[in-house]
Design brief:
The chain is built from five helices and six strands. With 167 residues, it is an alpha/beta fold. Helix 4 (114-128) links the parallel strand 5 (101-108) and strand 6. Bound molecules: flavin mononucleotide (FMN).
Amino acid sequence: MSKKLVLYYSYFGNTRKIAEAIAESLDADICEVKIKNEKKNQGLLGKIFTEMRKGSKTELEPIRLDLDAYDTVFLGSPIWGGGPATPIDMILRDGTVSGKKIAWFYCTGGESDNKSTERIIEKGKAKINKHNSFVSAAGFARVLKRPEQALEIAVAWAKEATSLGSE
Ligand SMILES: Cc1cc2nc3c(=O)[nH]c(=O)nc-3n(C[C@H](O)[C@H](O)[C@H](O)COP(=O)(O)O)c2cc1C
């Protein structure tokens, strides 16, 4: 069984753009993780303040998909506070996603230097490896500002990650 799923959360649409390109190029299923009653149309600062006020009270809509059917998950997440955004953090922590090979793609607000990239990947990897096996990671900055380049890199990365995952 080598069925692939692209599972992602996105607030502003950057991660969604990458997720859709990967799903299309791999002919994989795709599913969006959603926050219950999420307030949309907030700017970046508004969203940050909402998240800070909510603390750990975030609730997710159930994932209406049989996760058992997949062995590889391309997991997409914005970076919030230097790590995977709350919804993705939650499904990794509580084992909603477990026993999968995870190829992780993430979106940031700005370019990261080598040190902060390393920190982001180490943080994500540790969270992924709690219930799953980390395969590979790819980061993208300001995707919606220049999508073509990012999507090309994302698709090439996803193809490579697929072959890594099948070893
Ligand atoms: C609550 C919150 C925290 C964020 N923290 C970071 C951060 O630590 N580092 C960073 O580079 N960008 C940070 N950002 C910016 C997002 O990572 C960036 O806008 C990303 O592209 C959003 O992905 P999306 O369009 O899929 O929602 C943050 C955004 C929000 C809303």
